[in-house]
Amino acid sequence: MEGLNRLEQAALDKLLSGDHPALAVLRQQTTMARVSARKQTGVGFFCDFEIDLSAATVRGDFTIGDVYREMEASPMVRASCSSFAKVA
């Protein structure tokens, strides 16, 4: 995907891994998507994406939030990722 840094790409890869049909569609969308906005919050980040109108779509709003990571600098710190998808 155009415009992601390494952390964002790693989080997106983990969020979209799995066998659910909606995840397959979202993975396909990433091949024609780019980052349109990014916000650093101090404790995380938000990325907005623009996706080509010809891409397959998934209906509805949903949350994917099953990604956790221990940071290499401190095994006592855990990070989590959630993805919120909304079709605009």
List the helices and strands and how they pair.
Elements: H1 6-15, H2 21-30, E1 33-40, E2 45-51, E3 62-71, E4 74-85
Antiparallel strand pairs: 1-2, 3-4
Distance between the termini: 20 Å
Largest sheet: 2 strands, antiparallel
Order of neighbouring strands in the sheet with most strands: 1-2
| Morphology | globular
Radius of gyration: 14 Å
Taken in chain order, the helices and strands follow as HHEEEE
Give the class from helix and strand content and strand pairing. Answer: alpha+beta
Record field, number of beta strands: 4
Fold and architecture overview:
The protein has 2 helices and 4 strands, in the order ααββββ. The protein has 88 residues and is α+β, with helices and mostly antiparallel strands. The chain is globular, with a radius of gyration of 14 Å. The protein has one domain (6-85). A two-stranded antiparallel ribbon has the order 1-2. It has a two-stranded antiparallel sheet with strand order 3-4.
